Amino acid sequence: MESGRVRKQRQVLILFLLSGVAQAGWGLRRYFVMEETESGSFVADLAKDLELGIGELAARGARVASEDNEPRLQLDLQTGKLILNEKLDREQLCGPTEPCVMHFQVLLNKPLEVFRAELLVGDINDHSPEFSEREMILKILENSPPGTVFPLKKAQDLDVGNNNVQNYNIGSNSHFHISTIKRGDGRKYPELVLDKELDHEEQSEFRLTLTALDGGSPPRSGTTQIRVLVLDVNDNAPQFEQILYEVQVPENSPIGSLVVKVSARDLDAGANGQITYSLFYSSQEIGKTFELNSLSGEIRLIKILDFETISSYELDIEASDGGGLSGKCSVSIKVLDVNDNSPELTISSFTSPIPENSPETEVALFRTRDRDSGENGRTVCSIQDDVPFTLKPSVENFYRLVTEGALDRETRAQYNITITVTDLGTPRLKTEHSIIILVSDVNDNTPTFTQTSYTLLVRENNQPALHIGSVGATDRDSGTNAQITYSLLPSQDPHLPLASLVSINADNGQLFALRSLDFEALQAFEFHVGATDHGSPALSSQALVRVVVLDDNDNSPFVLYPMQNASAPCTELVPRAAEQGYLVTKVVAVDGDVFVVVRLCRRRRATPLGVYSVPEGHFPGHLVDVSGTGTLSQSYQYEVCLKGDSESNEFRFLKPIFPNILTQDSGRKLEDIPTLQNNLGN
């Protein structure tokens, strides 16, 4: 696109759906499979669910597309069954999220239909509970009353639901028992409950084994050691300024950013009043994302946040003094979405080349997605305005790229389409994807001759197989559609033996005379030639060819009058009183060729009676009385010669009997009198 040019774009809101494309009666189908099921296992009979025949699935190009474009599912077009393409790990797919749902679509062509479905991946008890520490140290004042509760760090179990941690217990002892507490997030936490008063002097330390049990069958378990230190009395525990801290952090905050600062105070003095901060109930993800300064209470980022992965965090902070007392608070961190994800575009199907005569043809089917939320996740989709294609929205963020009308390969054989997906966030982010569409040729152009008619000149008596000329045609199509074969069309004159006169080279249009032509028999003839391409159906055109035969002087003249025999000359009597202009005779001759030339041959002979002359130049066809008496003084005989136009053939009659004479004006010898065509005067 030229620089500075404002490119018009047709925009389609990504949320706009064409509900008519989806199967109305299908709805959303849900299927279930347990994790770690072997690859190749049966999931669903899609042919039955879609109410389609096995052959129809293959004919309509059925295929499965998942949200993350991973080929975890495979559709067997021969059986119509949906099978697993790999083992599924629920913990890898969904982490702690329950239920674990994998969205996918079944795509059909001709016409386009999109069926939405979900695969629920069930959890198996393949993970045991694990504590983050092999030993927990708990400091308890000796004056703590019975019933005092001491929260403990919970065990982690990657399984979910009933396969997660369900219960805690400790071995038999005289002072403590374990209570299992279920918090708002559904997870269960252990608390150590004091059953009997402590006495530092009697027993300053207890060692307990804490066991976490999940609800699997059979259940799995994990253990850690609890070391309880009984302390002398420290009567003031640290207290936080707030029991709950609520903060919001943009997801694009840089590493090292201050999230929040918690603060606690202790009324005791000395070591009993010195406070240190620590994370309590810290998960592995929290430990990788946040860092708590144990002295200042500042919580800073040590990992970039990602709203699309985790949108909120819950932290428990413990403040402990030097005497072993502690206080707790909670920090709720909400991650704010920023427009940091460019839209994504995935091509599901693409067809190229496409026939030029195919309007409303689907070229590509693609899906768009933006991982941001709200306006940051809303997108518009467009292509450039100067191409004969349009975008049509489908369902579930699918779009169809179709032709607006029939294309013309001869005008343009290739299109570079740029699909632009732009979100509505600030600043706006966009993704561009280019596809090259080739236009295949259709036989829609007739061969065109370089001339509508051709005139070829051929001299008679030619050699057989003589190349007499050529015709030529062009075809704007390509490939076999542009390959041309030339032919002679049947003659409209039933008496013209065209097949024996000329032939044509079918490949290059060269014309040949098959035999020697005779001007006297055939002076000209016409016929039509055809040019046919190799398309299907084949197209053709025709042109007129006129062949003109040029005459050769290949026939001798024949005198019709005056009549003569082989030996005696013809004699004409002229009255003595013949005046000037008197017609002596006429010569009539014929020739098979075009022109007949009659030439009066003259000879010189001396005579005592005087001199006669015949004027130079055009011979007037009369004799002249040179003596001026008005009469001819003697008889004369002339030889009349008939010649063809080329002067190569000559027919003579009358032997010359001429006196030697001189010219009237100069006395020079007379040469042959100039030629007269077709007559000898009147």
UniProtKB/TrEMBL annotation:
GO BP: homophilic cell adhesion via plasma membrane adhesion molecules
SUPFAM superfamilies xrefs: Cadherin-like
Entry annotated with the keyword Repeat: yes
Domain Cadherin as annotated: residue spans: 132-240, 241-345, 346-449, 450-559
Superkingdom as given in the UniProt entry: Eukaryota
Location relative to the cell: Membrane
Main location: membrane
Keyword tags: Calcium, Cell adhesion, Glycoprotein, Membrane, Repeat, Signal, Transmembrane, Transmembrane helix
Molecular functions (GO terms): calcium ion binding
Protein name, entry field: Protocadherin beta 15
Organism: Ictidomys tridecemlineatus
